[in-house]
Structure to design on (248 residues):
DNA sequence: ATCTCTGCAAATGTTTTGCATCAGC
DNA sequence: GCTGATGCAAAACATTTGCAGAGAT
């Protein structure tokens, strides 16, 4: 059974507005405005349970700590330059990944990371 | 200028055979068979330069440390279950991602991570 | 009253960095 | 000989966990 605590409500509230994917540290800082005594361990524990319940989704950017965002938000895709390491956001999405997994799986979300050289490094 | 040292040759050799994506620790252990005094810092520094030169590619699995593999090897895609956390390998790959980036970019590789419920957790 | 959740601090694991020394070129 | 590369140890982060006490039900 999951209890409805002040801490969990403070953390949920952070994600109720329009925010970009956040790191656990950023979630902590934002939620501490409501709950100054909040600890980082609770943030990690709460984020994990919100991922398991499907409310949040982990966003993995190459070379960065995991970020979390609302599952319902439109997803992003990334391009990572192997030379300068810069990550850019890719808007277009060509979809239909359904055929990639067996029918017994429930496909909820996909994430695409493209690798190569960005326009800057491609010139040099 | 990049020097051709014993350490770099030992690390390169690890990747010359048919191996799965390796963590830096695994690379260290394998390369130490040739070079017992090799340190982990050198492994990290060498892996980074091999990624920048395009020889190696980083493979990011959700919830695991970064792994490295030869860029020329056929790529993999992953399915990550949000409930049990298990990661499975997806064989099929359907899409063409060329249209997702501007022409000024050089697209060399893509990685797809699918999220949802695996067949086990989907039943429950 | 029970039993989960929390905060703290310590432990764990990964990756980076400072620095003196070593070795390619 | 110059200068980049190495090994070590420490530092910097990210994340998890043990535990005793607080709080939700």
């Amino acid at each position: 059974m999951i209890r409805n605590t002040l801490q969990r409500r403070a953390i949920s509230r952070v994600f109720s507005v329009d925010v970009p994917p956040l790191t656990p540290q950023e979630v902590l800082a934002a939620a501490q405005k409501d709950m100054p005594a909040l600890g980082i361990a609770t943030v990690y524990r709460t984020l994990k349970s919100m991922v398991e319940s499907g409310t949040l989704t982990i966003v993995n950017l190459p070379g960065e700590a995991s970020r979390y965002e609302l599952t319902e938000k439109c997803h992003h895709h990334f391009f990572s330059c192997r030379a300068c390491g810069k990550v850019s956001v890719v808007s277009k999405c060509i979809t239909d990944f359904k055929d990639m997994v067996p029918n017994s799986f429930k496909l909820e979300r996909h994430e695409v990371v493209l690798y190569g050289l960005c326009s800057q490094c491609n010139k040099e």
Notes: Residues 1, 3-6, 23-25, 40-41, 44-45, 65-66 of chain A lie near DNA strand D (CB under 10 Å from a C1'). Chain A touches chain B through 40 residues (CB under 8 Å). The first helix of chain A runs from residue 6 to 14.
